[in-house]
UniProtKB/TrEMBL annotation:
Residues 30-94 form a coiled coil. One of its GO terms (cellular component) is vacuolar proton-transporting V-type ATPase, V1 domain. Keywords: Coiled coil, Hydrogen ion transport, Ion transport, Transport. It comes from Rhizophlyctis rosea. Belongs to the V-ATPase G subunit family. InterPro entries: V-ATPase_G. This is V-type proton ATPase subunit G. Pfam families: V-ATPase_G. The gene is VMA10.
Length: 121
């Protein structure tokens, strides 16, 4: 009976030892996961900082030209307005004459969709 008690005691000690090993393995795994998350967060922050820097450079490169572009567009707009005003002044008398001619010289005729009436026979 002493041998079986000793065998049971040995099994219990082995179970406790294995439990400690499993607990250590779990703690190690949890620690590795935490370390991996921390490392990933650092990499994300570094990448975010790098992309923000690139964006700031891109923005600086292309936003500085907006004032020049705005001035150029305003200049082109003024040029076109001058052209339109010149065309208006040049052609306004001709347009008025044509409008008056169209109003005063009316040739009455039936509408194309009006039904045709046959003369009574």
């Amino acid at each position: 009976m002493a041998a079986s008690n000793q065998g049971i005691q040995t099994l219990l000690e082995a179970e406790k030892e294995s439990s400690k090993i499993v607990t250590k393995a779990r703690q190690y795994r949890i620690q590795r996961l935490k370390d991996a998350r921390t490392e990933a967060a650092k990499e994300v922050e570094a990448l975010k900082g790098e992309k923000n820097k690139e964006f700031a450079g891109f923005e600086k490169q292309f936003s500085g030209n907006s004032d020049d572009t705005f001035a150029k567009v305003n200049e082109e707009t003024e040029e076109r307005l001058v052209e339109v005003r010149q065309a208006y002044e040049k052609n306004k008398d001709l347009v008025i004459e044509r409008l008056l001619a169209g109003i005063t010289n009316v040739a009455p005729k039936p509408h194309p969709n009006a039904p045709k009436v046959k003369p009574a026979a």
